[in-house]
Design the sequence.
């Protein structure tokens, strides 16, 4: 009897946690699809198959739900990026990550894609807990990108990762914004080319020193030749 009494609360707790997870999952897609401002509690609960009144059994406020939804979206995005880079040697890992991020499929998959590109312009106007989630994700992504660099651990790798992060997110935002498919593709492809091309240091061709046995070129005659000579 005691075992059964313990099992019932555990089952209820598990059911509540599963319901909570379902609400957050629905909200994480909704905020990327409709933005923070366009995501209402009633619509989220309806899509999750629940009544509006059940909301406050799971969250203290709408902002609390948005923060959890943003955290789930960021976690999914980070896992996607890490998975794309996994198993590839540096710097191929970064190129693979960028190709996946700047793909047409990612451009079209707004509700399951990068939350920074989907919500960046709105984030500055959100509650502190939502902004905190975005800040943590940006730092995590910058660190992931920097770790793919041969210069990992040096200031230059971190600085380049900041530039790469800003460029890839900005390119995705613009590629989604335009209504011209050709322009969208050009924005993606140009950004990808720029981010994956070798740096100046790797492009430089080392100068081959002359072979020790090679004869030296004769000195050019001086233009001031003595006419009487």
Sequence:
């Amino acid at each position: 009897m005691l075992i059964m009494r313990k099992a019932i609360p555990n089952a209820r707790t598990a059911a509540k946690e599963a319901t909570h997870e379902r609400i957050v999952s629905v909200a994480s897609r909704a905020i990327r699809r409709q933005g923070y401002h366009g995501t209402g509690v009633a619509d989220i609960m309806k899509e999750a198959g629940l009544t509006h009144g059940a909301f406050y059994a799971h969250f203290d406020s709408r902002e609390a739900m948005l923060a959890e939804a943003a955290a789930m979206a960021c976690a999914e995005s980070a896992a996607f990026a890490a998975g794309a880079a996994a198993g590839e040697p540096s710097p191929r890992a970064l190129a693979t990550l960028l190709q996946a991020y700047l793909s047409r499929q990612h451009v079209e998959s707004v509700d399951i894609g990068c939350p920074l590109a989907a919500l960046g312009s709105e984030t500055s106007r959100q509650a502190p807990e939502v902004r905190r989630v975005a800040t943590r994700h940006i730092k995590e992504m910058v660190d992931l990108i920097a770790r793919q660099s041969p210069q990992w651990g040096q200031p230059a790798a971190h600085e380049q990762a900041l530039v790469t992060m800003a460029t890839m997110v900005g390119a995705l935002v613009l590629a989604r914004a335009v209504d011209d498919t050709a322009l969208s593709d050009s924005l993606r492809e140009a950004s990808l080319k720029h981010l994956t091309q070798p740096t100046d240091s790797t492009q430089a061709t080392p100068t081959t020193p002359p072979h020790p046995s090679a004869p030296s070129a004769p000195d050019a005659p001086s233009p001031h030749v003595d006419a009487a000579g």
